[in-house]
Amino acid sequence: MSPLKIKKGSSKHSAYDLKDPNADYIERHTLACVVTNEAGVLARVIGLFSGRGYNIESLTVAEVDHEGHRSRITIVTVGTPAVITQIKAQLERMVPVHDVHDLTEEGASVERELALFKVTGTGNDRIEALRLAEIFRANVVDSTLESFVFEMTGHSEKIDAFADLMRPLGLVEQARTGVAALSRGAK
Amino acid sequence: MANKQMTGAEMVVQALIDQGVDTVFGYPGGAVLPIYDEIFQQEKINHILVRHEQGATHAAEGYARSTGKPGVVLVTSGPGATNAVTGMTDALMDSIPMIVLCGQVPTFMIGNDAFQEADTVGITRPCSKHNWLVKDTDQLSDVIHQAFHVATHGRPGPVLVDIPKDVQFAKGTYVPPKAASTQHYAPKVKGDIEKITELVEMMEKAQRPILYTGGGVINSGDSATALLRELAKETGFPVTSTLMGLGAYPASGDQWLGMLGMHGLYEANMAMHGCDLMINIGARFDDRITGRVDAFSPHSKKAHIDIDASSINKIIHVDVPIIGDVAHVLEDLLRVWKSRGRKTHKEGLAKWWKKIEEWRTKRCLEYKNSETIIKPQYALQRLEALTKHRKDRFICTEVGQHQMWAAQYLGFEEPNHWMTSGGLGTMGYGLPASVGVQVAHPDALVINVAGEASWLMNMQEMGTARQYNLPIKQFILNNERLGMVRQWQQLLHGNRYSHSWSEALPDFVVLAQAFGAKGIKCTDPSDLDDAIMEMLNYDGPVVFDCGVEKHENCYPMIPSGAPHNEMLMGEDTGEDAIGTKGAVMV
Predict the structure, then answer these.
(1) Exposed/middle/buried for B319, CB within 10 Å: 0-12, 13-18, 19+?
(2) Strand A147-154 vs strand A109-120: parallel, antiparallel, or unpaired?
């Protein structure tokens, strides 16, 4: 027996504290980062998340200022309040990151996602799909005698709901952009 | 200087000169030949040829840590760059400013799996503060200046510039440092004055305060050290430090409690546990410091001064976060405290010091000495006694037990005289680091306190020492074991010493001679002083093989998962202690 009386295989004492101290409340936050549009900037952001074990629920990126070489990355992430604070601090210290906004924390914001759904079928299912698409204000952007492609923009939950309804009606494929978000108001 | 046309390779050398670089540690190869050709044709930059690129990075770290200037590394593509990864990660963890310039295959061959091609910016992205692949010679000088700016501003760290060979040959316009686009990276250095005032109010009321200082004080520069010393002197608060912060407050100072943490001093850890106000200055609540997080200093208010906002509230929640540079914040802190009448809780402080004196009587660094075997602690005490008068003494270490003993038994009076791998714990750091320190301080006494296992990891750098006549002293505490691994196996894995010793160690004296250095072997405590003096008096590199007690444990020790007030003490050490008496919980 060793002086500490530790059984073989016990993880109670280890070179590291093996208990996750953050295993409590989980929050979902939408972060908007303005970054220099340079090679590798997205890899840096993604590498930060994978390297430090943060979650990415969705991520969108596109250039928003061609002259100023600025892109906007919108990230939906989940974590404890402490982890969310860490994520923001870690993003802010990156050299090509200019601004990080926590849209969830900084007041009201609008979030939209675009989705395309391919639904195949004939007969009643096809009619029902079209009827539901109207209710959800989805547009038909392509059609054959056996298929529709619906386009829809909205909050992610609305898109989830539509996808759930389409599934029994012949949903064969879907493509989603992830969330783009802006704060409400003049600021 | 006006903007002018030059080749990429010329630009590299010009940019280094304009950045005030005097020394580059490097190793040539196919993809950096144009730059090496330029280095050959100039005399302003001293190039030190290492024996392995990892050696170059640690030498640059030693250079940087001992001078306060950034270290510069020049390596080739592929294996040159991948060999630099460990040193870059080490510099990232310990916040050492370093610029790595590396060759890359020509731009038109990138992605083709060309000879000696590696995705260097991809590989080094997570181990650098920032990195750049330069595809256009017109941008090269601007990027190199940005690299120096990023490495040395805010929390320092390593950066890498990947330079394809065709970019080195092509001509472009050189931009001098002043015209470079560095303005967008400007970390905040001044702390929030409201927070600083809040901290001053807490200092005035604190009955059991402690200054917990770290490497950030040293990185902040000489003025930060001076301000820390003034703050300690004026307030009378006790001072402890992390491994990286040793020397910022002098070891001979009355208020010095010694290093804290896993192998820190009893009084330092007890004071951290029992304090009512903890002022963290440039440290980062590393897990080797905190022990069990939920039992860390449970009754204290905590303030944290750090230039990196992501260090604050990462591990330990603090009551007063102050984002800023140590020197700037301490200057404001002292000004506010003085303007409010220099108040402290005198009565409480006197009681606190009485308590600390009680803890000091524990004499936690005492060990059972031997007349027949050299105890590693004894070896370091003798080394200290025989060298502490030297103001120009620089100490490097490898990683393991010897490193902790060095931190415990050697006293550091000034910052930048202690080079060690803290965050990453890189075995093989010390020898090349001592090369870098000696290059920066040719006449100084540079000692690398090593373990034989760590030392063997980068021993090829003895060749560098010989080539440049660097009189580095390699003081190897040879226990023929991976001492720290063995200690953990003894304490935590039921004495099962799985692969923690080497059955085929070299003869270090002969090895030293093979490198053209002097070898000294000592195994008898009564010969030790003479042998150390022989090492010190020899004008040239020395490998000192100090045969020590094989199964000595490093105490005090906070086992991981334990709080600061549950330290293992070294009542009994050595082989006979295993399993029976052993160390006890305090």
Answers:
(1) middle
(2) antiparallel
pLDDT for B576 beyond 90? no
A94: chain B residues, CB-CB within 8 Å: 130
Question: Are residues A1 and B155, on separate chains, in Cβ contact within 8 Å?
Answer: no
Nearest CA in chain A to B316: A82
Q: Cα separation of B459 and B438, whole Å? A: 16
Contact B409, B381 (CB under 8 A): yes
Judged against a pLDDT cut of 80, whether residue B213 lies above it is answered with: yes
The answer to whether residue A50 neighbours chain B at the CB level (below 8 Å) is no
- Tell whether B569 is covered by a domain: no
Residues B386 and B426 in one domain: yes
pLDDT band at A10 (very low <50, low <70, confident <90, very high): low
d(CA A126, CA A138): 14
**Residue B494 is nearest to which of A8, A18, A44, comparing CB atoms?**
A8
Round to whole Å and give the CA distance between B330 and B224: 7
Tell me: pLDDT of B289 over 50: yes
CATH of residue B81's domain is: 3.40.50.970
Token pair for A145:
């005698």
Of residues A13, A36, A98, nearest to B492 (C-beta): A13
Chain B interface, best mutation among A7, A13, A54, A91, by max B CB count within 10 A: A13
Residue B582, pLDDT score = 34
Of residues A31, A82, A80, the one with CA closest to residue A58:
A31
Same domain, residue pair B327 and B402: no
Q: Which domains occur in chain A, in start order? A: 27-102 (3.30.70.260), 109-183 (3.30.70.1150)
One domain, residues B200 and B302 = yes
Query: Are B103 and B213 in a shared domain?
Result: no
Active-site option among B115, B234, B338, B391: B115
Residue of B nearest to A48 (CA): B126
- Asked if residue B468 belongs to a domain, the reply is yes
**Of A1, A16, A93, Cβ closest to residue B287:** A16
Which of B10, B53, B117, B398 is flagged as catalytic? Answer: B53
Tokens of B268: 């330092």
ipTM: 0.86
- Tokens of residue B477, six digits: 């505490």
Chain B residues close to A93, C-beta within 8 Å: 154-155, 187, 308-310
Interchain CB contact of A186 with B (< 8 Å): no
pLDDT of residue A23: 61
State whether B346 and B459 are in the same domain: no
What is the predicted pLDDT for the residue at B559? 83
My answer on whether B445 and B298 are in the same domain is no
Report how many domains make up chain B.
3
Which residues in chain A have Cβ-Cβ distances shorter than 8 Å to B309? 89, 92-93
Contact A95/B at CB under 8 A:
yes
Q: Are residues B322 and B397 in the same domain?
A: no
Domain end among B179, B203, B237? B179
The pLDDT of residue A8 is 54
Q: Containing domain of residue B267, as a range?
A: 193-360
Please state, in angstroms and rounded to a whole number, the distance separating the CA atoms of residues B461 and B438.
13
B524-543 pLDDT, tens digit per residue, is 999 999 999 999 999 999 99
Residue B238 carries which side chain, given as an amino acid letter? Answer: P
Of B146, B179, B212, the last residue of a domain is B179
Whether B584 maps to a domain, the answer reads no
The Cα–Cα gap between B425 and B431 comes to 14
Q: Is the pLDDT of residue B365 over 70?
A: yes
What residues of chain B lie within 8 A of the CB of A92, using their CB? 309-310
Are both B203 and B296 inside the same structural domain?
Answer: yes
Q: Is residue B184 part of a domain?
A: no
Question: What's the CA gap between B117 and B110, in Å, rounded?
Answer: 7
Residue B111 touches chain A, beta carbons under 8 Å: no
- What is the rounded distance in angstroms from the CA atom of residue B403 to the CA atom of residue B574? 19
Q: What is the CATH number of the domain that holds B274?
A: 3.40.50.1220
